[in-house]
Structure formats: C-alpha cells, structure tokens
Amino acid sequence: MHLSQRILAVKPSATLSINAKAAELKAQGQEIISLAAGEPDFQPPKHVLQAAKDAIDQGFVRYTPVPGLPELRQAVAGYCSKQYGHTLTPNMTIATNGGKQGLYSLFQCLLDPGDEVLIPAPYWVSYPDMVALAQGNPVVVPSSPDRNFRITPSDLQPLLTDRTRILVLNTPSNPTGSHYTQAEIDDIISWAVDNDVFVISDEIYDQLVYPPAEPATAGKWLQKHPMHVAVCNGLSKSFAMTGWRMGYVLAHPDLIAKLSTIQGQSTSNVCVLVQKAAVAALQGPTDFLQEQREVFQRRRDLALEHIASWPGISCPEPDGAFYLFPRMDTLYSPVIPDSTALCTFLLEKAKVALVPGGAFGDDRCVRISYALDDRSLVQALDRLKAAVCDLADSSRVHE
Ligand SMILES: Cc1ncc(COP(=O)(O)O)c(C=O)c1O
Question: Which CA distances in Å does 247 have to 97, 153, 383?
C-alpha cells in the first residue's frame, strides 16, 4: 500500500496515546491515576442532556444545512455577541465537529504549500500537525516560564518573513493554562494586522478563566478587522461535552462560506441532536459555567500549593484552563534525560499518568491536568511528591 508523504509526516496525538497507555495499565489491574485528561470530569447541565433526548423524541434524524441549523447559528452569534461586545450575524458562524475541525478547516482554507504559521510554544499538540497536513510550515515562537509563557510582538517580529500567513493564539492555553489580558491580545493583533498576518484565536477554554484574571478575546477585533481574525471555540470544555463534538468558528462570512465548502465535502453537518443540545446550552442558564469555574479554581490552588513543596520544582500560576505546566528539568539525569523519560518513570514508579512537555514543544516541563476529583488529585500529587523526592535524593547522591 502506498501512503502519502503528508500522512507519513504526521504524528499521532501525544495526549491521546498517553491516555491509552494509562488505560492499558489500568486494564491490567494497576492502580493508575491519570492526570493526563484533556476533558472536564463534570456531567453537562441537565437541560442540555434533556434537549438531546427531546430532539430524538421529536424525530430529528436528518441532515441539516452544512454550517448548522439556522437556530444554532443564531444562538452562537447571540452568545458570542454578548462576549465580544458587538453584534455578530449568523452568517459569521459555522458549527464544526469539535473545535478541532474548525481549526483544521481554517488551515486548509488559508494556507498554500510553504506558507508559514507562527505557533507560540508551548503549544497544543495538534497545531503543528494540522499545519503540516495543510502543507504549511509551523514556525515555533519560544516563550519563557518567567513570563508565564506569554509572548509579545517583539517575540514575533524576528520570525516574520514574506511567507508568514497565520499566527495561532491560544488563550487560556493548553498546556500551560496561561491567559493573555485584553491589552496583550490587542497588542498582538495590532501587530498582526499591521503585518498582514491572519490570527486564528483558539478560545476553547474561554469559560475557564479564574478571577482576578478577566475574560479576554480576539473576538473584539472581528468587527474592525474581519479579514484578519477568526475565533475557534466550542462546547467541549465549557459545557463538559467533549464526546459530543460541537465546535464553532466565528469569522468573516466569505471565510465561513469556504469553511462550509470544505465541511460539505468531508464531514457535512454536526450531528443534528448535538446541534439541538447546543442551542439549549448557549441560550440556557449559565450557573453551570460559574460552578465548574469555581471548582477548577479551587483545585488549581490546591495543586499549586502542593507542588510548591516539591524539591527543586517551580510552577507558574496559570489563570485558566485546567492544566499546570511545572518545570521539572532539575530532575533530569543521564538515565532520565527528558520529559518523556520522566513521565514514563513517574507512570511506573508513582502510577500517575502525566503528559511530557516535549509533546507541547517544551521539554523542560510536564503537563498536569487537575480535571479529576479532589481525593484522587491529592492522592496522585502525594505519590508524585514521593517519587520526585526520591529522584532528587538520588541525583544528590550521584553528585
Ligand atoms: C487548545 C485546544 N484547542 C482545541 C481543542 C479541541 O477541542 P474539541 O474537543 O472541541 O475538538 C482542544 C482539546 O483538547 C484544545 O486543548
């Protein structure tokens, strides 16, 4: 069988494979606790579940328009208009199969072979491979834990070339949880507009921003610079609906039409039942969002306090998402030379699954997800601390 160069160049998602490895060890009877989850551990709100059941009973079984039911596009536009502070029309929206499909289709629409995409590191694992699948070149923009992994136009400027087409922003970030202020986003987008770079802003964690940090969005720029900005979002993280595959993109109507063409030739519409449930989510009460946010903020604080007691490990305080990204390279040695080796060691020794930072473009760190109950979280952190102390002691013995 001949496989294309394109597919041979793409790596499977590292987060999915570590979860699979942890599940395999669990199935063998080992007591693994996974801090590798990329999804909330909540149930979606009851009225959203009910809306899907009602849709079945009401006989919603057919294809819908490719970009989504008119009522859903209206709901997305209404929901985002409130957040962005200006009026969006339904033709500026498309419902996609998860946030992932929105991002994938955007790269397909906007890139020609060899075009460059600026991707601040640490980055969500899928961006570089999605860019490669669109025959673009990912250009990594390094950042520093000392600045909470946030970049500024001065980090972008040296990497600008006449092939630079897109900048990917992700706020709050997976894997760091770091979140830009509105002023920082405004600076970055001004720079992008001045240099004719298109900004794709992935805001899938936008409902998980912890006070005193405030929500911030590139969506504010859609009115003034619709030819330079698209926002990707979805219900996976905000409404704990990862398995339902409901994402959306906000962009200029001409770009939405192109996204719709790709979708029409590949997956067609999002499942009609999910679309009906999404209308209920976006137009319904918002207390779920607040409750989920409070629980995650409490867990973040609990985990940060715990990690502060680990020898030699530092962890910036993130303002959002449900991840911590501590720097662990003080534990590296000839036997454990990188983040993959460290995560393998911790999985075997502490029976805790983490994701190596190398998968996100920063091999100094590991990603810890706190999307699990408090008891298991504390138990996992206790086990990790014991293993980290052992490692720190043994490296001191060998000094
Ligand atoms: C940063 C980021 N963007 C996009 C996605 C895709 O989300 P979805 O499940 O809606 O496809 C994820 C999921 O993990 C993510 O972490």
Answer: 6, 29, 36
For residue 362 and ligand 1, the question of a CB distance below 6 A is answered with no
pLDDT of 12 over the 80 cut: no
Which CATH topology does 5-43+287-397 take?
A: Aspartate Aminotransferase, domain 1 (3.90.1150)
Ligand 1 pocket: which of 174, 246, 271, 360 to mutate (most atoms within 8 A of CB): 174
pLDDT interval class at 396 (50, 70, 90):
low
CA distance 123 to 102: 17
For residue 240, report the distance from its CA to the centre of ligand 1, in Å.
12
Please, where in the chain does CATH 3.90.1150.10 lie? Answer: 5-43+287-397
Q: CA-CA distances (angstroms) from residue 395 to 20, 134, 338, 387, 399?
A: 31, 44, 15, 12, 6
The tens digit of pLDDT for each residue in 177-188 reads 999 999 999 999
Structure confidence by residue, pLDDT tens digits, 379-392: 999 999 999 999 98
Within 10 angstroms of residue 309's Cβ, the number of other Cβ atoms is 11
Question: According to the model, what pLDDT value does residue 24 have?
Answer: 84
Tell me how crowded residue 258 is: count the other CB atoms within 10 A of its CB: 17
> Are the C-beta atoms of 220 and 80 separated by less than 8 Å?
no
* Mean pLDDT on 283-306: 96
CATH class of this structure's domain 61-283: alpha beta
Give the integer Cα–Cα distance in Å for 231 and 210.
Answer: 21
Whether the pLDDT of residue 244 is over 70: the answer is yes
